Amino acid sequence: AKGGRGGREQGAGEAGEQGSLSAIESPFLKKLMHEILTPCEAIADQVSAIVRSHIIDNWASLDEPPHLRTIRDRLLCNEQRASRLLGLYLQILQNGGVPADDSPEKIELLLSGLVVKKQGSLQVYNRIYQEVFNLEWVEKQLKKLRPYADFINRWVTSNYQDETNLLRGQALKDAQAWAKGKSLSNMDYRFLAASEELEKREVQSALIASEQANQILLNAEQQAKQTIRRGMVGLSALSLVAVTLLGLSGLLTWQTVQQKRQVSLGEIKALTLSSENAFESHNTFDALLESLRSGINLNRMGWENADTDLRVQVEKTLRQSLYWVRERNRLVGHGDVVTRVKFSPVSAKRSLRQRVASPFGSANAQAQEFGQKLASASWDKTVKIWQRDGKLLHTLRGHTDAVWSVNFSPDGKMLVSASRDKTVKVWRVEDGKEIITLANKDWVACVGFSPDSKMIASMEWGGTMRLWNLQGQELKSFPTHKAPAVAIHFSPKGNMIATASRDGTAKVWSWDGRELLSLGGHNNWVMYVNFSWDGKNLVTTSRDKTAKIWDLDGKELATLRGHSDTVASAVFSRDGQTIATAGWDKTVRLWNRKGEELQILRGHTDAVWGVNLSKDGKLLASSGEDGTVRLWNMGNRESGKFQSLIFNLGEAAAGSVSFSPDGKTLGTTGRYTMAKLWSRQGQELVTLNGHSDTLRSLQFSPNGQIIATASRDKTVKLWNLSGKEIATLRGHQADVRSVSFSPDGKTIASASWDTTVKLWNLDGKELLTLRGHQAGVRSVIFSSDGQIIATASEDGTAKLWNRQGQELVTLRGHLAGIQAVSFSPDSQVIATASKDKTVKLWNREGKELLTLQGHAGEVNAVSFSPNGQTIATASEDMTVKLWNRKGEVLQTLAGLDAGVKSVSFSPDGQVLASSDSLGKVILWNLDFDSSPEKLLAQGCDWVRDYLKNSANVKEDERGLCDGLRSKP
Q1: How far apart are CA 211 and CA 625, in angstroms?
Q2: 82 vs 699: which has the higher pLDDT
């Protein structure tokens, strides 16, 4: 919409210019006018870019003195009316205006300054307001206000037809309680009314059924009384009547129970749908919470009381949430943007007696050692101190404007905060009391302690750095940048201070104000700067959507590319090997020192500003514009067997993944000319470098001592575990797609796009060529007894051959090329994966046994588990599916961002490795024997701190997980 309107305005301008010039007959005047107008166009473009860059895109941080923030606050300050004002403003945005009248909400909207009365209608005051407070902003604010935002949005999207998104039961009661006393938008009232109407219909249906049952019972009772009065029945007849009455009474009770059951099942379905939607939006923590609510409700009423589809769906949402969740807790309480979050450093030493007396035992001692507390700074003018489990300890009040920065003293006893109110405040951590206020001359963007906790450095917006002692005495001040300065950081030794500025540079200074280093590699504002823990490196972040790593000589070591918006801050891990970045694209990203992206943490619903790592590296904290602090698990997962390890290995793993026979090593191929070996923790062990084109496949020999790789360079190479090339197998005339060892490890089979399969010995001698396919051969494998070779081709067939090269049978039935073929461990069943989106199972005689249908894209890979009872398939639909031998789906492993190219079971069958086209390798821990109760217990262990401490949790929900706890 913005682009369309802008385009029309630009077109109108061009037409006007052309019209003016065409009216001038003189060639000289026409040329002169063109020379005058052309620079004006360039200036107009520059003005537009400057307005967007300095006002529209960054109004929140540049609105000084407050103007746009004042308009925002007038809209949102009164929660009772905010929803209605936003709803009215939303109509103006969508329709271009609404009729003006004297209704209270329209008058209030006029008084906010956001709209103006023109020609009898209310319209947005100007284009800048319209760009700042746009549709996305309104929807975001409404979502914060409404507890049912997702449901109403889906209901509206369905053109008000999908009643599964209407509220019922407790959800409706909660919404009604929230709405009480508030002035809501018409759409809110319509949604709540529709929900109430639906519940009334369901209740009415239950009443009608109950009344019908009562009437039947009443009629029977009257008939029985008449019969008794007439004396026409004996004792046995009376007994029959009594039994009839009892049966009818039971029928009534049964119908009532059934009605309640249907209502409960409706709530469970709604919660499950909500979990699915949250998962698809990458909000895995919310998905887990919703799946726990649905699962616990179903557990209470009995899993056997639900149909199979619902049980499967509830279990699926639980499993996928447990596999993918990284967010461990969410700290809620701030009323505006949370700019920074920091973990406390090592706590002051405690006596042995104190440690032993701790009610939390060793776990608490470890939390104390590595920083049990967190501090968060917010535009709501407060600083909050939290326990690591999410309990709010103190709210520090005293600033009169937004707080931009917060930092603990290295000894953990003090906290310092910086604010727009031109002050720095020092607080005592123990009780949250203010110790001293340091008055600056401009608003303070950043503040920090020296490593010895004896000095404070503050950075004013105008670029002046001030150094203070703890008594409030200013020791020194000196100018730094000529543009606004936004960040400051002491070196670990305390002999240098790094600063970041909107002039596009970061600088390093001595204590006396001498500039030691200038880092000028970014092409936009530098938002943040931070030292590594050893003081040897710096990381900078920028509005150019990148972060950069530097050494102290000013040499750029790596550029971290991946964020789609401003990178607001960054931090090094304790060992310096990992960097975490916070982005305005709503993500936190983890990187290695080479600049390779390791992981993306999604969950924030708005720009992320702050990021920090606990000293033990087990927790990451992030904060942002959604007003929350989120804690993410960085250490070993504690969700039992349902953990998954995710490695973003990039181009080196975008092709295939294979477990070694001992299960300790993974081999990957990708778009590079090399293969790599990795530990199960994602550490690169060996690089196999020697091919001249992309690799297609990698296989370990049965004894694990030799590795075979297949390449587009038409060769197969053999390697030892040290990465030394042993032999090169030459003979194919085209791309080699697949390679396989015989069970005894003495023979190698290779499949090629030249339509042939070749057998080789370990010396590289060609033994045999199998010919028969009419198109390229994609896959080859030996049976476990070594007697049969199976091949799969782009010609849509698979073939079975004996070791002498004789074709035994052709498997026909797929409607497109076959991507992969696999034998069951007993060699009796063959599985083929095809571009036709199916997998087929065959016996050795070529009879089709079963078709596995369920994928929505081409199936790229298929593999049997070591016990032969489970089949794993990988598809372009971005899922991995696990099936039993009957063709029933056991699990769907979803949540990936690209087509899955390969799957491999660990030798013990407990872990499945998958790789996708983006190079993400995931180790899925499998537990097929887990009960729903076990899943619920694992999920409850994950969210227990949140349920106990979060202000977001209603009191009656704090006991949601009572009685559900995993066994140690």
Answers
A1: 54
A2: 699
Q: Check residue 598 and give its pLDDT.
A: 85
Looking at mean pLDDT, say which of 68-72, 94-98, 363-367, 550-554 comes out highest: 550-554
How many CB atoms lie under 10 A from the CB of residue 963?
Answer: 9
- The encoded tokens of residue 423 equal 């002050």
For residue 86, the SS3 value is: helix
461 Cβ contact partners less than 8 Å away, ≥ 6 residues apart? 64, 442, 443, 444, 445, 484, 485, 486
The average pLDDT across 662-672 equals 90
- pLDDT digits 0-9 by tens, 165-188: 888 776 787 777 777 766 666 777
* Distance between CA atoms of residues 590 and 8, nearest Å: 42
Per-state percent for the chain, helix, strand, coil, to nearest 5: 30, 35, 35
Who's near 239: CB < 8 A, 6+ residues apart?
none
The pLDDT value given to residue 968: 60
Q: Give the residue carrying structure tokens 């307005």.
A: 51
Report the C-alpha gap between 465 and 446 in whole angstroms: 10
pLDDT at 681: 81
Where does residue 968 rank: exposed (0-12), middle (13-18), buried (19+ CB within 10 A)? exposed
> pLDDT, tens digit, for every residue of 216-229?
556 655 665 565 45
The burial class, CB within 10 Å (0-12 / 13-18 / 19+), for 471 is exposed
Torsion, Cα of 42, 44, 48, 54 (10° steps): 90
Q: What is the 3-state secondary structure (H, E, C) of 195-222?
A: HHHHHHHHHHHHHHHHHHHHHHHHHHHH
pLDDT, tens digit, 9 for 90 and up, residues 229-245: 555 444 455 455 555 55
Please tell me the distance from the alpha carbon of residue 913 to that of residue 902, in angstroms, as a whole number.
8
User: Would you state the pLDDT for residue 7?
Assistant: 33
Neighbours of 245 (CB within 10 A): 14
Dihedral sign, Cα of residue 765, residue 770, residue 775, residue 778: negative
Average pLDDT, the chain: 84
In whole angstroms, give the CA distance from residue 895 to residue 862.
Answer: 19
Question: Which residue in 132, 126, 125, 130 sits closest to 60, CA to CA?
Answer: 132
Helix (H, G, I), strand (E, B) or coil at 876: coil
The Cα–Cα gap between 191 and 195 comes to 6
Structure tokens at 518: 């200038």
Q: Please list, in sequence order, all residues whose beta carbon lies within 8 angstroms of the beta carbon of residue 257, skipping any fewer than 6 positions away.
A: none
DSSP conformational letter for 55? I
CA angle 741, 744, 747 (to 5 degrees): 45
**485 vs 59, 449, 520, 759, CA distance in Å?**
17, 17, 15, 67
Structure confidence by residue, pLDDT tens digits, 682-708: 888 999 999 999 999 999 999 999 999
Q: In the chain, what is the straight-line distance between the N-terminal and C-terminal CA atoms, in Å?
A: 56
Sign of CA dihedral 762, 766, 769, 775: positive
Per-residue buried b or exposed e for 527-564, using 16+ beta carbons within 10 Å of the residue's own CB: bbbbbbeebebbbbbbbbbbbbbbeeeeeeebebebbe
Q: Is the CB of residue 424 less than 8 Å from the CB of residue 464?
A: no
pLDDT in tens, 701-713: 999 999 999 999 9
If you average pLDDT over residues 351-376, what whole number do you get?
A: 47
Whole-angstrom Cα distance, residue 663 to residue 684?
15
* SS3 of residue 879 by DSSP: coil
Residue 349 has pLDDT above 50, yes or no: no
pLDDT attached to residue 640: 41
Q: Which domains does the chain have, with CATH numbers?
A: 2-56 (no CATH), 68-145 (no CATH), 205-328 (no CATH), 329-348+362-638 (2.130.10.10), 644-930 (2.130.10.10)
